[in-house]
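User: Predict the complex with phosphoenolpyruvate.
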Amino acid sequence: MLRLAGVGASPGIAMGVAHFLGGRVEVQERRIFTDEVANELRRFEDAIGRSDAQLRRIQQQIAEQEGDGQEYRILEAHRMMLADVHLVEETRRIIGSDQVSAEWALRRALDQIQAVFARIEDAYFRERRSDIDMIGERILRNLLGMTPPGHEGVPKGAVVFAHDLSPADVTQLGRAGVSGFFTEGGGKTSHSALVARALGLPLVAGVQGFIKHIRTGMTVIVDGGRGEVILEPDFEVQGRYADRAARDLVQAERLARAREAPAISLDGERVHLAANVELLEEVPISVELGADGIGLFRTEFLYLERSTLPTEEEQYQHALAALRAMDGRDVCFRTLDLGGDKLPTSVRIPAGNNPALGLRSIRYSLWRRDVFKLQLRAFYRAAAVGPLRIMFPLISGVAELRTVRELCSDVCAELQRDGLEHNPEVPLGVMIETPSAAVIADLLVEECDFLSIGTNDLIQYALAADRQDEHVGYLYHPLHPAILRLVRTVVGAAKRAGKPVSMCGDMAGDPRFCWVLLGLGLRSLSMAPRQIPIVKSIVRASRIAAAEKLTEEILRLRTEDEVEEAVNRVMKERFPIEFTEETS
Ligand code: PEP
Ligand code: MG
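Assistant: Here is the predicted structure with phosphoenolpyruvate placed in the model:
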């Protein structure tokens, strides 16, 4: 038995027979003579051509089955990398100057790029190295006449392992019935991780150096929650995980039975449960999981992974596709939230000394009004077709909101002038993510149609603690008394104004906090799609009066630890099955 540590990129447990799906191609250094250089350069060109043709074929298959969604565009980005100067020109240069084979030159160019990526501190960008890796391995395989890693013959229930997996691999293998994945590359924020989470399949990424330990056919356990892979588990460990997997299955089946049932508490209060999504692929999955709507559609992914900005038409089609997939349910699009930790290559954002407090989010949109207006035009046009809402991230005051609203009016006037069908009555909402917005929620709500509390940012700004920073992570706490009071202020302001308020930060999808949020008066929560069934089951087994009693009690406490202790005690006692040791 051998335990390998990685990063838990998608939770859940998979136990099964390991199946290897391609890996890092081993290349030896080979010197060539001067008169062989031209031939090596030609071999390299041919391999690039074949790689491009393969990617184009996969793209066509995806387009036929699912349209030109996110996966299609990621493959487009991969195809563009086939012309990347650092990869292609550098390989050509090494072949000529060092007189080595194309394979060896490419391996060296890839290693140089990886060394640069490894020094990047930002996790999102560091993980983009896996895209370069995937494309590099494909060219190498083509150079060596090896077949690209295929999906044929992967048995149902297998646990697939690979050097890295593309989002297309995860989708196709997931649909073919594999039970989980682990990879050497990738991480929590990779696209493959996003797709695995949407499909509910466990994935442990970043498991270093495992290839030498593992063979196809070995028994393996993937624990996506802990970020652990266990090779050839002993009898006792297998038994323990089998029990857990069986319990998870019973729980999943119980939750699935309530899929069609509405989230109504025992005392008859309806709670609206919506999904947070980033990719179109997650929209039908959200419906399957019982989402009442899309409460937060993060639009950044349309802008990342590409070197040009998306056109108005592209954004319009994207919004239409989401509305169609939701079949009459609300879709709330959040306008661009770039900057801070989300930086595309298609735009330049001055970093400033402190990106989290700098030109990010709505501030960027107001700085690049041309980019912002294109997005607004697409939304207003799509709103003529289905129930679309727009919300604005990181609003910090009324003046900013007024500027945004003026731009919205300008956009509607322009659409009118252009004779384009649109709906000027789109509800406009404000995300409450800054302490200033929370404190003046009563003023903001007077000038918009709804509020949505983004606790991920609100917590980090209110407590002045970057949640990505391991040294101050202990300060980042959703149950801090200051956060509870801010949420109470916002909900109270919206209720007094008779306007809808919801929460779309991660806090909304944590079943442990369900009573706290109901007790604070929230009746609309938006969360990662996979969280909907468990939160719904808690709502359906709760009385609002009990939640209010707990909330009253914790609002009197002084520290986050005291609050957490009180909340855990009540929730574990009341919901022993939902909050077993492993899940809490
Ligand atoms: C939030 O800040 O709570 C939020 C939902 O936005 P994001 O996580 O995309 O910053
Ligand atoms: Mg945010």
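The two ends are 27 Å apart (CA to CA).
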